[in-house]
Amino acid sequence: MITTSIKSKLPNTGQTIFTVMSVLAKKHKAINLGQGFPDFDMNEDLISLVHKAMKDGHNQYVHMNGLIELRETIADKIFYLYQSKINPNKEICITPGGTYAIYTALTSLLKPGDEVIVFEPAYDSYIPNIKINGAIPVLIPLTYPEYKIDWNLVKDKINPQTRMIILNSPHNPTGTVIDKNDIEELRKIVFGTDILILSDEVYEHIIFDGIQHESILKYPDLFARSFIAFSFGKVYNCTGWKIGYCIAPPTLMKEFLKVHQYNCFSCNSPLQYALAQYLQNKNEYLQLGNSFQKKRDYFNVIMAQTKFKAIPSHGSYFQLYNYSEVSNESEIEFAKRLTRNAGVTSIPVSAFYKEGKDNKVLRFCFAKKESTLNEAVNRLINYFSLGKNNFIKNI
Ligand code: GLN
Predict the structure, then answer these.
(1) How many CB atoms lie within 10 A of CB 296?
(2) pLDDT reported for residue 378
(3) What letter does residue 306 receive in the DSSP assignment?
(4) At what angle do helices 269-278 and 68-82 cross, to 10 degrees?
(5) 27, 130, 292, 370: which has the fewest C-beta neighbours closer than 10 Å?
(6) Which residues, 6 or more positions from 387, have their beta carbon under 8 angstroms from its beta carbon?
(7) Which pLDDT value is given to residue 395?
(8) How does DSSP classify residue 66?
(9) Which pLDDT tens digit goes with each residue over 340-381?
(10) Mapping DSSP to helix (H, G, I), strand (E, B) and coil, where does residue 140 land?
(11) DSSP code of 295?
(12) What is the pLDDT of residues 143-154, one digit of tens each?
């Protein structure tokens, strides 16, 4: 047998925490509040539109940038929401998911030695996506427990090698959102530089408490240097469809398309025909914030029976809880024990830090039916009431 020795391009990258925890959840028949995906049915009308598109023969390649009717509908939606005029021919590319849009944006511009500012905790694909391009992630911690950006720390890290800043709002895993002050600070920092922005806005509609989403699309001066990633999976409760899009000004989109055309080329056609029609229905995405806010509130009410301490979430479908009154274990050990022994899976937030910083915080996905959330919290209560942890609050 011939063996070839390989030198890994990502020697320190293990398996994504979402797969690790979902596999463990399945093995132990745990309720999976770890990986972020809804457990309720998606809209039947949208499914019927996909079926119809297939039956109507829309089963061959569409334009590599995406079906033009879908790109036009996206441009209309952006104008309606953010009063920004986007050219569907030059500034939009349909992608197989938001993560792909992020990877492609990074790959289209980063050169070895470029520095990219990443706020931690960070969605777990960012750092490997930077490193695979030979670029250097420059890590800045968000303040704990508010998870805000300390812009003075950002100023300190800017130098001629700084090529990009990655923003994510509403934020995965913390559920925090950037506000107008953050936008002003960002403006001051990038003004007069060549620094690009990659804005991950996949949870744009899942925002709570009357807060307005501060899309980069609202700010033409910032948009001129930005890639923005979006996801239909988050809007239509179909994360498995893996379809999203990237918006960028023509000069950046031109580079993005050079990578995209030889990687994905063009995305699933029938989904695009269906989405082009379904996306015209504004109510569907406008009500998302309210419906997920109800789920967040419901989950927080039932979790309040326990000693888990909620850290406010203003967007995304995640809620963080500090468990330091319950256990001293590391986040990963505790999350695994809860999966194995209590039958409830979460995600350790330490997985979103390169050095695994451990604040004793777990991320729970509340994009679930009330019955699922009830069952999960009941399992936690039952498990801990059997042990010595004195887990339930004394009423
Ligand atoms: N975005 C999802 C989450 O945060 C996971 C996606 C994935 O598993 N790659 O849970």
Answers:
(1) 24
(2) 96
(3) B
(4) 40
(5) 27
(6) none
(7) 40
(8) -
(9) 999 999 999 999 999 889 999 999 999 999 999 999 999 999
(10) strand
(11) H
(12) 999 999 999 999
Asked if 385 and 391 count as a contact pair (C-beta separation under 8 A), the reply is yes
Q: Report how far ligand 1's centroid is from the alpha carbon of 356 (Å).
A: 18
Amino acid, res. 121: P
| Ligand 1 within 6 A of CB of 125 | no
CATH match of 59-281 with 3.40.47.10? no
Nearest-angstrom CA–CA distance, 300 and 62 = 44
Q: Is the CB of 18 under 6 A from ligand 1?
A: yes
373, 317 Cβ separation under 8 angstroms:
no
Residue extents of the structural domains in the chain: 17-36+286-387, 59-281
Q: Is the shortest distance between the CB of 34 and ligand 1 below 6 Å?
A: no
Distance 37 CA to ligand 1 centre (A): 8
Q: What is the pLDDT of residue 107?
A: 98
- What is the CATH number that goes with domain 17-36+286-387? 3.90.1150.10
Smallest CA-to-CA distance from 256 within 216, 196, 215, 214 is with 196
Cα–Cα distance list, 115 to 110, 137, 243 (Å): 9, 6, 29
Using a 6 Å cutoff on CB, does residue 372 contact ligand 1?
Answer: no
Instruction: Note the pLDDT of residue 41.
Output: 95
Domains 17-36+286-387 and 59-281 share a fold: no
Ligand 1 lined by 172 (C-beta under 6 Å): yes
Q: Please report, as a single letter, which amino acid is at residue 41.
A: D
Interatomic CA distance for residues 144 and 133, integer angstroms: 30
- At 170, list the tokens: 């509403």
Q: Model confidence at 5, in pLDDT bands (50, 70, 90)?
A: confident
- For the segment 299-345, what is each residue's pLDDT rounded down to a tens digit? 999 999 999 999 999 999 999 999 999 999 999 999 999 999 999 99
